[in-house]
Amino acid sequence: MIATEKDNAQEMFPLVDEMGNIIGAATRGECHDGSKKLHPVVHLHVFNSKGDLYLQKRPEWKDVQPGRWDTAVGGHVDLGESVADALKREVMEELGISDFTPEPIRCDTAGTTHYVFESSREKELVFPFRTTYDREITPSAETAGGRFWSVQELKDNLGKDVFTPNFEQEYKRLLLK
Question: In the predicted model, what is the mean pLDDT of the chain?
């Protein structure tokens, strides 16, 4: 995607229940209009072997949280696509990586590997994953770049409107253990 473009408001997403079962479909515009239609997304947290965490900077043209630092990979599951396929597609599109091993992140003591994130604008069923990756990362034009952050840099910037609220919540809840 060219950096001057906007998100496609007509892109179709599945609507799901809190267990991930498909119950309908809606456009991106409908899912992001404040109606809180629950739709699935994937996140990949990319660590290097030193424990640093790669974050992407969201481009200014994004319809949600433009210009903020966010999860290395975050993207919607398209209508008719599995979570695994969406993760592979998004990682390739955003970081140019095809050779990674995703590990699902447990979201609660029961071992659930998804959770609901809700903002004033949308409601997502998030499937978070992590991987360790030490090779070069080539962010695409879908992002405004990216870099690895040390644990101390992350902690120093929490709560300062540097990161997306979703990333901060996920980082504190799932990655700071």
Answer: 92
